[in-house]
Amino acid sequence: MTINEFREWSRTSRTKIYDELSRGTLCAIKVGRRTLITADAANAWLAAQPRYAQSGAIA
C-alpha cells in the first residue's frame, strides 16, 4: 500500500509514518519513485504497538 493508503488504514499522520520509517519501526520498499508498505510490514507495525488495557493504562 502507498503512504497515503497506510495513513488511511492506520489513522496516523504522514509525519508519524515518516518518523516510524526513519526509526526503523516500520519498513517500506521503493518501487521507482513510490514508497510502498507491504501488508506484512503494516501488520507487524500494528502488532508492535503498545496495548491499551481496560483500566486505561498501557500494558
Automatic annotation (TrEMBL):
<dbReference type="GO" id="GO:0003677">
    <property type="term" value="F:DNA binding"/>
</dbReference>
<keyword id="KW-0238">DNA-binding</keyword>
<protein>
    <submittedName>
        <fullName>DNA-binding protein</fullName>
    </submittedName>
</protein>
